[in-house]
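Sample entry (116 residues):
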Amino acid sequence: MKNLIIYFITGGLFTTLIVYLEESGFRLLSGFMALIPVFTLISYIFIGQSQGGLAVSQHAKFVLWGTIVSWIPYMITVVYLAPKIGPNKAIAIGMLVFFVLAITFLAITFHYNLFK
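Predicted structure, serialized as C-alpha cells:
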C-alpha cells in the first residue's frame, strides 16, 4: 500500500507542475514537460524494480501499439475540433474516440493474447 501512495503522489506532482507552468505563462516549458512520458517513466521504474526488464519491455510494446491505435486519434480529434467547438467539447469527443478505440484494442489484444 505504501508503494501505491508513492506512485499516486509522484504522478500528481508531475501533473500539477505541468498545469502550473502553463498557467504561469511558461508554455514552452509546460509543453516540453507534457511531452515527457511522465507516467510511463515512473511506471517503468517501479515495474522494473518489482518485475524486471522483460515486464517493462512487454508493457512498452503494449503501450506503443495502444498509443498508435487510441492516443494519436484522440489528439487529432482535439486538434481539429477545439477551434471549432471549444476545448471542453473537443476533449470530451476526443476522450470518447480514445475510449472506443482503446477498449477495442484491449479486447482484440486480450482475445488473441497478442502481448504476453
